[in-house]
Fold this protein.
Amino acid sequence: MADLTDAQSSAVYKLLMGLMKPGKACPVCGSSAWILVNAVMKKPAADFGRPMPIVVLVCVNCKYNLDFSAVGLGIVDSSMNVIIPGDPSE
């Protein structure tokens, strides 16, 4: 797991909110309020291969999770190094 700085977390949240449809509602409770887990996490691979790095949005109301591939979004490289574009720590 790689913790995100406040600036990185803000950049990731903006990226994810830009990908979601406006007012994207939680499929469980219908809320459109989401928070970002302030870390890049490792999700076990279904085929018992290498874990997949993910970032997670959590519904504020019911705590339902939306997982996004951190590598696919360009947030980390394959070695779990955080490489958020425009990050001042780069």
User: Anything to note?
Assistant: Strands lie at 2-3, 34-36, 39-43, 52-59, 65-69. The chain has one domain: 2-69. Residues 2-69 form one domain. Residues 6-19 form the longest helix (14 residues).
